[in-house]
Each structure stands twice: as C-alpha cells, then as structure tokens.
Amino acid sequence: MKVRLFSAKVILSVFFLFNIFGCDERCEEMVSPTFMLTMVNDSKEDVHLYTNGETIGPNNKLAPGEKRSKEIQRTKLQTGGTIKNSYESLDVIVVAGRNGVTITATNFTIVDQNTRKVYWDGSGFSYDK
After folding, report:
1. pLDDT surpassing 70 at residue 106
2. Cα–Cα distance measured from residue 69 to residue 51, given in angstroms and rounded to the nearest whole number
3. Are the CB atoms for 103 and 92 separated by under 8 Å?
4. Straight-line distance from the first to the last Cα atom of the chain, in angstroms, rounded to the nearest whole number
5. What is the pTM for the complete model shown?
6. Which distant-in-sequence residues (6+ apart) come within 8 Å of 43 by Cβ?
7. Considering the chain, what is the average pLDDT of its residues?
8. How does strand 115-120 pair with strand 34-41?
C-alpha cells in the first residue's frame, strides 16, 4: 500500500511541476507527427493493399478479413502553429492490386486526424471519416 501511495505522489508531483513551469519548444517535438492508416480486406479474395512509397509485395498481401496498419510521417509546417495544426495536410494514396497489377486506387487528404481505416470490398474502397 505504501508503494502505491508513493508512486501516486511522485506522478502527481511531476505533473504539478510540468504545469507550473510550462512547456518550451521541445514539448512540441514530443508530439508524434505521424498518421496511422489501417487497411482492411473486406473482399472474398486475397489482395495487396499498399500506400505511399510502397509497391506490391508479400508484406502487404492480405487474405479476406485481414488488416494491416502503416504509420505515415507528417511534414512539419514551416510557420509553426499550435500542436494540433502544426503539420501540413497529408495526401494519402491507397492502392489495391493482385498478380502484380493495380486494380484501383483511392486518395484522400488528412488535416487533423490521427487515424483512418480504409476498407477494400473487392471492387472499390470505403473509409471511416
């Protein structure tokens, strides 16, 4: 019981000190400038689902019902801004392919989201907004 109480006191003290002294420009660097894309194969056939900077390969082949996630780096704005909007919008392209051939692709722009799921149904894409 004493160990848990001590841990809670330490955590609260660190939190309190952080709030008193504020945050300098290094705090913004601690915010992850990445976007997590999850691609889901909702079709009845194997398909390659891949995105920016990737090509068809065994690491992006998904069986029906499988999904894979990819972390995509954002570009920092040159002018700064608040933590929420200090990164440029992100243009994402998702491609479906089979047997070395592109079936179709979709693209969308991410402004302030951190995640998105894209679903392949065998003939086209849909996604969570």
Report:
1. yes
2. 10
3. no
4. 45
5. 0.69
6. 64, 120, 121, 122
7. 77
8. parallel
